[in-house]
Amino acid sequence: MAYEHFLRPILFKTDAEWVHQATLQMLAMAGAWTPLRAILRRNYCVDDASLQVNIWGLTFPNPIGLAAGYDKNGQGMHGLACLGFGHLELGTVTPLPQDGHPRPRIFRLPEDQAMINRMGFSNRGGDALRTRLHMRVPAGVILGINIGKGLETPLEGAAEDYLGLMEDFYPLADYLAVNVSSPNTVGLRRLQAQDALDDLLHQLAERRSKMRDQCQRDVPLIIKLAPDLQNDELKDAVEAVLKWGMDGVIATNTTISREGLRSRRSEEAGGLSGAPLKARSTEIIRLIHKFTDGNLPIIGVGGVFDLADVREKIDAGASLVQLYTGLVYRGPGLVREILEGLRKRTA
What we know:
Largest sheet: 8 strands, parallel, barrel
CATH architecture: Alpha-Beta Barrel
Number of strands: 13
Helix content: 40-55%
Radius of gyration: 19 Å
Number of domains: 1
Strand order of the largest sheet: 3-4-7-8-9-10-12-13
């Protein structure tokens, strides 16, 4: 409440990307100091075995996760792990460092409870994130790594980017998310087309088999899909996911649709997230659940602002739910609020 009424109005008068980077720096500082981590956990975490979710041989402390894009480089992961999340998805990370698109590239749409970003996979590259993870990973939280094609990599060379990143992070991640759906890397979404996706997933499946034997561990591969796929395109993509033994789907990435928006910056280029995405992402979850007879785990993301939004996605077929834009609008207490509500329902 204090965040929404007092702090958010101040933050929303300041450049969105500057605020985001400053927040990550504060989370990094808090996460580096044991007493502060303890204070954050006491105020924001809900530890209750009834909230646990068991999929892929992993025990998630609760079903609420942080979506990829918030912490691309793992800078604030130790602080974020103290805000109540059951899992953190870092990235999207690319093989080499890249600056992404020119600023400004993040836009708030308060009248629509939404955001538009055209970051373009800005990150410090795979080596930097791998070094950070080797130093120390957060305790008590499942860690996913979201991997993507480099901005300058031609589409015909995309598989090598994904295969290399999979090899790099296979020993370090609890799961890997394959991002073929960002609207901010030119041509990337063409990898969701039937033949292209079939070929990519075939190569990933073969390489994973080798990595499984080499590392003596099984790391789930999850495919992140766009909300703008037509239903027949979605069905084709899900069939490829099943054919090559992928472990799940993240539904969904941001949308290029601008239908029904009222905010001044609504025509900015980039991916739209937040409340306007909620209905379509939930419909995608429902369709995937139907296509797979409920046998494929789904991580639902898009327009999650409260307990009702989480319940809607779980009822549609999601096993886990992620958020990002809701955190910007509702503040750090959102995860605890949702978890307290879920706990009451299971009591």
